[in-house]
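We give its fold:
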Amino acid sequence: MPDFIRQFKRIPHWVAVDYASILHMSDSTREWLVDSASLTLRIKNHCQSNQMGQFSVRLLRQGMSIPSNDEIQRLKLNSRRYALIREVLLYCGNTPVIFARTVIPIKTLTGPQRQLSHLGNRPLGEFLFAQPGLQRDTMEIAVLKNGHQLFDSATSSLYEKSLKLPDKVWARRSIFRLRHKPLLVAEVFLPEILATASVNAHPHNHLFPPVLTNVKI
């Protein structure tokens, strides 16, 4: 039996990155959200350059479960089909900065991609961006608010630390393909990462990233 089953209360309104301008975000927020390079590498550099402490990953939960309806639609899965779902927090020191949720269809967990079920506290990004022939579909962006399960999951760490919960958080998601086998990665940007972000701190400025092929860090 799966060790956890999570269904979203409300489905976020995901907007393709080409239409992200309608979401009225700051330039610094936009630059983080639409950057198509490795987020893991960027967060590591951000932790160091802002003297926020060492980068680390905390595995919150992982197990076979039924994805939410919008995840099923995005991955074009059969309804009620189980997938491996992994949720983690990325930290700078003791500060959680990114919540990530990955949905990996069972058919993706074959061949070399079986390693995806054994990452533990290893960053998913390090694995993905080291794979030859990595492809990434069009990125989507959403504003998450209280009532979205993804918001509640992402901000639970702030509640545990007795920190004030934000009114909203920004999120993005995209499908990565490893040898044409898909997995869906959603990344939620917690308040501290955007508060300390600077447009000029990162040398790349991919405002409207194309579909990526053969991506490497």
In short: Helices lie at 27-33, 39-49, 69-75, 124-128, 149-160, 191-195. The chain has six helices and nine strands. The domain at 24-213 is CATH 3.40.1410.10 (Chorismate lyase).
